[in-house]
Amino acid sequence: MTEKQPMSQTELKRLVARAALDYIVPGEILGVGTGSTVDQLIDQLPGIRERIPACVSSSERSTKRLEALGFKVLDMNEVESIGVYIDGADEIDPGFAMIKGGGGALTREKIVASISGKFVCIADASKKVDVLGRFPLPVEVIPMAAGAIRRRLEALGASVKLRDFVTDNGCSILDAAGLSISDPKALEDEINSWPGVVTVGLFAHRGADVLLLGTSEGVKTFRKAE
Ligand SMILES: O=C[C@H](O)[C@H](O)[C@H](O)COP(=O)(O)O
């Protein structure tokens, strides 16, 4: 008898992306996030093309992918609200707060999430944690403020690296490792209050509503308690 092979991370991502298709409301504008898990989602959207009149996207990368597949991507300024936003995460805690921005799209992701009725997070099982902070926390900053913000993050106990990357907004990213984030909302508020911070990649005030987690036993669905 041949033993069942464990699913690869890519297969888990494809699986949760497929499960997310059920959350797309026919005829509504779809919010599309960024990252390797969302790439799996985008690749499956042509199969339900007739349900999606248009999208808004959280990055140039996703916009290009969507347009290449023939989807209309609207300018965010033309859109007041959307029903569903589907995006990945770098970490998600039991309260559905997330660290995002490993792919550098945190600011636009937060903007799209802020106008969405439902945030559906798609992630493989490795992303579910008890306490946020194993993944370095991305902070998008105005380039001339990078030094000042680095020092403030270090004062919180983080070890900080400037990412070799320019965001879609022309800004820089600092990755702050070593923070154990017991109060994600308070840290989100604090870092966002520092001059020169564009966005911190903590999604605590606007966390996920539904988590679709890809595990070797299949997709597990978690809903945020009301
Ligand atoms: O900036 C990128 C986003 O926040 C992604 O959602 C996050 O990094 C997860 O990406 P992936 O699906 O590639 O693990």
From TrEMBL:
> Which residues does substrate bind?
T34, G35, S36, T37, D87, G88, A89, D90, K100, G101, G102, G103, K127
Cellular component (GO) terms are:
cytosol
GO molecular function term, any single one: ribose-5-phosphate isomerase activity
According to UniProt, this protein's pathway is: Carbohydrate degradation; pentose phosphate pathway; D-ribose 5-phosphate from D-ribulose 5-phosphate (non-oxidative stage): step 1/1
**Gene3D superfamilies in alphabetical order:** 3.30.70.260, 3.40.50.1360
Pfam families associated with the record: Rib_5-P_isom_A (PF06026)
InterPro entries according to UniProt = NagB/RpiA_transferase-like, Ribose5P_isomerase_typA_subgr, Ribose5P_isomerase_type_A
Keywords on this record?
Isomerase
Q: Which reaction does it catalyse?
A: aldehydo-D-ribose 5-phosphate = D-ribulose 5-phosphate
Q: What is its EC number?
A: 5.3.1.6
Output the NCBIfam families linked to this UniProt entry.
PRK00702.1, rpiA
Task: Tell me the protein family, please.
Answer: Belongs to the ribose 5-phosphate isomerase family.
> What's the stated role of this polypeptide?
Catalyzes the reversible conversion of ribose-5-phosphate to ribulose 5-phosphate.
Quote the protein name from its UniProt record.
Answer: Ribose-5-phosphate isomerase A
Source organism of the structure:
Sutterella seckii
